Amino acid sequence: REWAKKVLRIPQGRPTMVYFSSWAQSTNAEGTAEDFEYAYRVVLEAAKRGWNLIVKVHPGEPQEIEGNYAQGALQHGVACKITKRYLEIVLAAADLSVCLGPSNVILDSCGFGVPSIYFSVRGFRMENIPEFDFSGNMEKDATRLSEWGMRLLQSPPDFGKILSYHAGPIGGATTRIAAWIKNKLKRIIVTGK
Fold it and tell me: Are 92 and 3 in contact (CB under 8 A)?
């Protein structure tokens, strides 16, 4: 993690939360633009409670979205890194991943030993992953997210259980994780590192 944080120029000494952006689609999240804006504002406010923040923008989102995330962070007085690229480095730097609705990136996070929280979305669930329901009170939601994240750092989930449960026809995350682990093990066997 220290190496990845240095590469991304993330300050040491505080845990790093990664917010994985999302968009409205029938396979990920339902709702309005306000739902996405509220989720991002909760993350920004939670970051003020002792977290470094990285916003990992989905590569399929339009270019201008990065500017929107930057403007939101500026308005909330939160310093953060925003990137569309470098998923593996972002995951290596992460201590906690957060996303709106269930996502394959949660499984990618598990492969890196990073606990995840997802904001609940009507009609979509991911077994064995903490699901966060909004109360509608920004301060309360931000405090709960920060505290819940800190507890997960102290007592992480059983990543093997999560990965084995979700290994199946859910997308490419499981395949990517398996390939990453296989390559990592090969490198350890060959180089001893």
Answer: yes
